[in-house]
Amino acid sequence: MAEPTSSGDSFSVLPISIPPLPSFPFPATHHVFLRRNAKILTAEDSRSLFLVNVPVDSTEAHFRAVFASLVGAGRFEGITFEHDKRATNSSIEPAQAARLAAHSKKRKREDEEAQRAQEEAAAQLPPAWSRPLHRSGSSAVVLLADEKSVESVLKAVKKLQKSKKFPVWGEGVGDKAPPLGPQWLKAHNKLSYPGSDAMQASVDAYFTLYNKKEVEAADLAKRMRNEPDEDGFITVTRGGRIAPAKQAEAEEAKRRMLEREQKKRDATQNFYRFQLREKKKAEQAAFLNRFQEDKEKLRMMRERRGNFRPDR
Question: Between 110-123 and 196-225, two packed helices, what is the crossing angle to 10 degrees?
C-alpha cells in the first residue's frame, strides 16, 4: 500500500506492517490515521482516540497488541468499531415507544439498566459470523487508561516516522481472535443454521421485550394525556387509543408539553399581568432616560465644537 503524501493537520499517521500472506505473499504497510476524539460529551471522551482507515480484519486483540507495542501494556482499555455503533443505535423499540420515551424525565436505576441490557442482548439473533469484517476505510474509537496515555500514544506515533520500526499486524494476537480463511467460512456456514431451541429463545425474548416497552409507552402516554394544559384544563378523551399513533401527533404533544413547562417557569417570575405591564413601563422609562442623556451629551459636544478656535 502506497504511503500517503499528507494526512491533514489534525491527524497523525500510524504505519502498520502487514506480513506476507498466502493470498498476497508480499510485505505491505497499512496507514491508520488517528487524532484526539473531537466529541467531548462524556468524561471518557477526553481519554480516547479517533481512528480512521482501520484494517478490514481488525479486532480488539489486534489493536491491543499494536498499542502495547507503542506504549506498553496496561494503557489500552477497549475499542468501539463503526459497525458496533450502528448495532447499538438500532433498537427494537416500537416506533411509538421510541418517540414517547423522550418525554420521560425519570432516570433509571443501575440495576434496571443492567437488566434491560441483558434483555436486549437476549433478544438479538444469534451471530452468523465468528469474526466480523469491516468495510474499507471504516473508523473506530479507542479508549485508553487516562489522558496521559493519549499523549504517550501520539508521541510514540511521531517517533515511528524516524525509527521506521512499525508495529507488525497480528503479532502477539495468537488464538485471541478467531482465524480467517476456510475455517472462518466453515464456522459461518455452521452459525447460519442455529438450533431451533436457540431461535425460539431469541424470538421469545424479543417479543417479551417488545410487549414490555409497549406497556411502558402506554403508561407514559396516559400520564402525558392527564397533564393539565396552560389554562389548567385536562382534556377528556374517549376511545381505545391512549397514545399518539402518528409521529406528527407525538411531536406536537412534545412541543405543547415544553411550552407548558416554559410558561410555568415564566409564571413564577411574573405571576400577574400588571407585573408585566409595570415591567414594560419601567423598561420604556429607562430607554427614554438614556435617550435624553445621549441627546444632552450631543448638545454639549456641539457647543464645545462651536467655541473652538484654531491657532494661526
Answer: 130
- Report the run of H or E that residue 231 belongs to, with start and end: none
**Is 7 inside a domain boundary?**
no
DSSP tag of 168: B
Q: Give the per-residue pLDDT at 7.
A: 42
Q: Cell numbers at residue 292, please?
A: 435624553
> CB-based contacts of 170: which residues, under 8 Å, 6+ apart?
19, 62, 65
DSSP 73-104: TTSEEEEEEHHHHHHHH---S-HHHHHHGGG-
Tell which wins on pLDDT, 116 or 85.
116
Question: Taking residues 239-258, what's their average pLDDT?
Answer: 64
For residue 263, give the nearest of 229, 297, 239, 235 by alpha carbon.
229
d(CA 29, CA 270): 68
* pLDDT of 148: 92
Q: Which domain holds residue 169?
A: 12-93+133-191
Question: What pLDDT, in 10s, does the model give residues 22-74?
Answer: 888 898 999 999 999 877 667 678 889 999 999 999 999 999 999 999 999 88
Total tally of structural domains belonging to the chain? 1
CATH code, domain carrying 46: 3.30.70.330
> Can you give the pLDDT at residue 89?
46
What are the DSSP calls for 295-310, one per residue?
HHHHHHHHHHHHT---
Amino acid 19 reads P
Is residue 176 within 8 Å of residue 61, measured between CB atoms?
A: yes
More reliable by pLDDT, 161 or 236 = 161
Asked if residue 106 belongs to a domain, the reply is no
The pLDDT of residue 304: 82
Please report whether residue 27 resides in a domain: yes
